[in-house]
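2024-03-11 09:14:02 INFO worker-7 job=invfold-0412 stage=load source=structure_tokens
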């Protein structure tokens, strides 16, 4: 185990820690809003992605896209691999769904 004091070499106040966290969030938010693609965003998101490999459904207005969640692209859009191929979803309501019977493993043992 370690402490912030051991890592930083001085006592850190709650105000300083809070300011550093807010600054880091602001920098990341600005990267997300930028026009340039960010491979670093994709790499940073991968270990945090709880949707990866899940069957999802995204409602975008009247349109629905279903398939396997496959991470995000360099602009931060959710990638869904479905019947129409890999699609980037920039906004919408996303739900985890049960996979259709045709995509589930139906093998039995025993």
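2024-03-11 09:14:09 INFO worker-7 stage=emit residues=110
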């Amino acid at each position: 185990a370690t402490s912030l004091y051991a890592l930083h070499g001085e006592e850190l106040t709650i105000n300083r820690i809070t300011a550093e966290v807010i600054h880091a969030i602001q920098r990341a938010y600005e990267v997300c809003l930028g026009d340039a693609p960010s491979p670093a965003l994709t790499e940073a998101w991968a270990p945090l992605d709880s949707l990866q490999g899940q069957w999802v459904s995204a409602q975008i207005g009247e349109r629905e896209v279903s398939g396997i969640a496959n991470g995000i692209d360099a602009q931060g859009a959710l990638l869904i691999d479905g019947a129409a191929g890999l699609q980037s979803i920039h906004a919408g309501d996303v739900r985890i769904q049960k996979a259709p019977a045709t995509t589930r493993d139906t093998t039995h043992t025993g």
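2024-03-11 09:14:09 INFO worker-7 stage=report msg="The chain has three helices and five strands."
2024-03-11 09:14:10 INFO worker-7 job finished
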